[in-house]
Amino acid sequence: MREEYFIDNLSEETIIRMVDKALRFQKNKKQDNKVAHLLKMIPAVACMALIILAINILPMFRHEIDDGEISGPNANTEVRTSEVALFVPKLVEKSFFENSVLAAIKDKRIRNIMNAYYYYQADKGYYALDTSIGAREKNMLLEYYEQYTKLTGDDLIAMYKENGIGYDPENPSRLILQRDPNDPYSHVRFGATRDTLLLDVEWYTPETYEDEFINHYKEQDWYARLSDEAKIQYSATRDEYREHYEKILNQIKEKTTYISRTINGKSGTYVSVGNGEEEIDISEYCDLDGYYIFKIYPYNPSVFYIDENGEEQYKDFGKWTSTLYYSTFTYTYNINNQTEYREVLKNEIIPFCDDLFERGLLTQYSYDYYTTFDPLEFYIDLWFN
Q1: Contact criterion met (CB below 8 Å) for 379 and 199
Q2: pLDDT band for position 93 (50/70/90)?
Q3: What is the spatial distance between Cα 344 and Cα 317, in angstroms, rounded to a whole number?
Q4: Label partner for 264 (CA 20 to 30 A): which of 57, 98, 355, 379?
């Protein structure tokens, strides 16, 4: 099973600001509740030494694909004329899929497998390939196309052309999806639903990780921009946790852990894949175009505050308690999409924060943050804006 750990990774300017805040926070722990909340989400680029410790307290995302729709086709795409090799199409017109694909497959088991990876979009008249499919499954489907049908790549291109499905002439398996110019998210790559983002990730290699975090970290731009006090603090922390760096380096070498170096060309962001124990194939966590599939949900929000006694408190949402006979248990459920989150925000988080604010346990800054936070907006702003 894949496990993803996310540390809120921000811009380099925010990195510098947060490290300085962290130092000031140690001098006056009660200075600002919001700073304390941010300290448990230290950016990976600035404080990579704390990854092993931080992972244990950060939200863990175990994602499931939700049924949904992808953007519609673009009819105005130039079609190449040279012969195209057979490929696994992402969109297939309904009659074409049923008559030229399914009908050609006489083996019921294989036909059921094909149906399991393509879902029908009734309002568009297309069968769409599941965006969570891995490289192995993709190769399996390609073998089925080759073995059971007489289709060629040119046949698929002709199907695209007849149904106005846009594609990249240099890479026909990559669709060019039409975007509504009035859509505020027209610049965002979504997966099957708007709860799934497709990220262009550059993963650390053993060479780049060792260079930047073990041998030459002082030569990095983000380090040069830290204050003198922050540099001293970071260097001390790095030396203290050097063995953790080396452990991560070995995991990268063994392909049991993948850590992002940049996301959508931006540094100062961080996602990781793998448990550090079993070798994984990163392509299994990417779509057919190689984009890493990041699923915003399931998501479990929490509110951090310091109570009247000066004790740190975390209020988790997305839980309910039930009494069965004479036993009481707490069952944790996931917030699975933006609609559910907004309901929890309205009915649970905002009333809770209202009470804390009236009692003086939340600053205005923290109150505004918790009562307006939107996971979708947060991740889009983090990676696409």
Answers
A1: no
A2: very high
A3: 8
A4: 57
> How far is Cα 341 from Cα 349, in angstroms, rounded to an integer?
10
- What residues have CB less than 8 Å from 44, skipping those under 6 apart? 7, 9, 51, 259, 269, 270
Given a contact cutoff of 8 angstroms between Cβ atoms, the answer to whether 144 and 114 are in contact is yes
- The answer to whether 183 and 243 are in contact (CB under 8 A) is no
CB 60 within 8 A of CB 114: no
pLDDT one-digit tens code per residue, 174-193: 887 666 778 888 888 888 77
- Sequence-distant contacts of 175-184: CB under 8 A, at least 24 apart: 175/73, 175/90, 175/91, 176/74, 176/77, 177/70, 177/71, 177/72, 177/73, 177/74, 178/71, 178/72, 178/73, 178/74, 179/71
Cβ-contact 373, 355 below 8 angstroms: no
Residues 314-326: pLDDT tens digits?
A: 888 865 555 555 5
| Residue 254 and residue 199 in contact, taking contact as beta carbons nearer than 8 Å | no
Angle subtended by helix axes 364-372 and 350-358, to nearest 10 = 170
By C-alpha distance, which of 225, 227, 222, 219 is closest to 23? 227
Is residue 199 very low, low, confident or very high in pLDDT (cuts 50, 70, 90)?
Answer: very high
Cα separation, 149 vs 101, in Å, equals 6
Q: Could you please report the per-residue DSSP string of 218-257?
A: GGSHHHHTS-HHHHHHHHHHHHHTHHHHHHHHHHHHHTS-
Distance CA 310, CA 265 (A): 42
The one-letter amino acid code at 243 reads E
CA distances from 215 to 224, 238, 249, 375 (A): 15, 11, 12, 36
* Sign of the C-alpha dihedral computed for residues 64, 68, 71 and 73 taken in this order: positive
Domain-by-domain residue ranges, the chain? 4-64+199-295, 91-178, 302-383
Q: Which one, of 154, 100, 155, lies nearest residue 127 by Cα?
A: 100
